[in-house]
Amino acid sequence: MSSVLIRPAVYDIQAIRAIVSEMLSPEAVPALTTGSRVLLKPNFLQPAAPDKALTTHPLILRAVAEIALDSGAHVQISDSPAIGSFARLLKKGGYAEALQGLDVTLRPFEETIPVDVGEPFGTIDVARDAMEADVVINLAKLKTHAQMTLTLGVKNLFGCIVGLEKPKWHMRAGVDRHLFGRLIVSIFEAIRPAYTIVDGILAMEGQGPGKSGTPRALGLLFGGKNGHAVDQVICRYVGLAPEALETQRNAMELSVYDGQAEVDGDFAGINDFQFPEMGSLTMGPEFLGRFMRRFVIQRPTVDPRICKLCGECWQYCPADAITHADSSISFNTDTCIRCYCCLEVCPHAAIRAKTPLVGGIIEWMRSKR
Ligand code: SF4
Ligand code: SF4
Q1: In ligand 2, which atom is closest to the CA atom of 171?
Q2: pLDDT tens for residues 200-235?
Q3: Helix H or strand E segment including 233
Q4: Ligand nearest to the backbone CA of 84
Q5: What does DSSP say about strands 261-264 and 299-302: parallel, antiparallel, or unpaired?
Q6: What pLDDT score was predicted for residue 369?
Q7: Measuring CA to CA, which residue among 77, 236, 63 is closest to residue 142?
Q8: Ligand 1 atom closest to Cα of residue 308
Q9: 255: CA distance to ligand 1 center in Å?
């Protein structure tokens, strides 16, 4: 049985430090010792102020870095942001200021090494820094995700796939949520962080994980040695059946998690958390495929009044499914794999996932059966 700590918290360095000290106790993370190389892996999705709830809050990084430094470890903080420069992210996200005076290395993941993550993926390139650290501490954000329902502790390590390899893997596995969940679990297991902390003080609900999501104050930090257990407890807290999360289903199918999580802390749960609008990715029989893609299954749509034609979405789209003209962008619904990377990277929250009218009517009819 894996223990998961839930602690009420606010963004105050002393308060967070007290909680994180309890979480990262020598019993929980014995490898956090003098000379050990510690990697902190936050969610650095894109440059954004902390009150947008897109990224792990800087004070959590500060508190964990202080504790690791106090133990005599060498501390590195790295991620591979989907968009924007690492320097801009550090400034806009408040990290440069929050981490001032600490002897930590801040750098984006760049080098990779081949890692065999098992069938059906085989060998994939993973950030060298994540594979070679003595201790990885996973510092995730509690957010909704239009493709995977939620992005929590386990999915955070998908960020150890570097740069444009990320959309490529979205392309290969992203059309099938279950397969994509398996890829995420396989990467998590290859890295095996010593501890996972999920920032749910200011979480995100609605159409996350990018700027279309809505910040939601939950006032909680979750932590545990087993990231799958942490995710399971969060699912239960926000009112989602854990087996509805593909990373949970895959972890149990792969027998890397027994589904047994024990809560240490106050567990009331909430029943009004807003999940993203999700649509089926299944394309149906071959002859119906095009019709389904165009008129039935959920797809990305743009609000041209908000779009600034900045180019982030079409440069990132792994399927080259976005074209742009002088005044607007458009999606090729036949080639779009519904990975929602565009929704994630749009810096202006101009893209949403929407179910077309016919699909909406079908869903409504099914709900009435
Ligand atoms: S939809 Fe968003 S990312 Fe794409 S061009 Fe418009 S503003 Fe940029
Ligand atoms: S258009 Fe958006 S959802 Fe479709 S493949 Fe491209 S990035 Fe993914």
Answers
A1: 5
A2: 999 999 989 998 899 999 999 999 999 999 999 999
A3: helix 227-238
A4: 1
A5: unpaired
A6: 57
A7: 236
A8: 7
A9: 40
Residue with the nearest Cα to atom 5 of ligand 2?
336
**Domain ranges (residues) in the chain:** 2-264, 286-367
H/E stretch holding 216: strand 213-224
161: CA distance to ligand 2 center in Å?
A: 18
Domain 286-367 bears CATH identifier 3.30.70.20: yes
Residue located nearest, by CA, to atom 6 of ligand 1: 307
Yes or no: say if 102 and 62 are a contact pair by the CB < 8 Å rule. yes
The Cα-based distances of 32 to 55, 74, 82, 128, 220 in angstroms read 25, 10, 29, 20, 24
Ligand 1 centroid to residue 29 C-alpha, Å? 42
What pTM was estimated for this model as a whole? Answer: 0.85
Given a contact cutoff of 8 angstroms between Cβ atoms, the answer to whether 218 and 187 are in contact is: no
**Which superfamily is assigned to 2-264 in CATH?**
LarA, N-terminal domain (3.40.50.11440)
Token representation of residue 115: 């890692």
**Which residue puts its alpha carbon closest to atom 5 of ligand 1?**
309
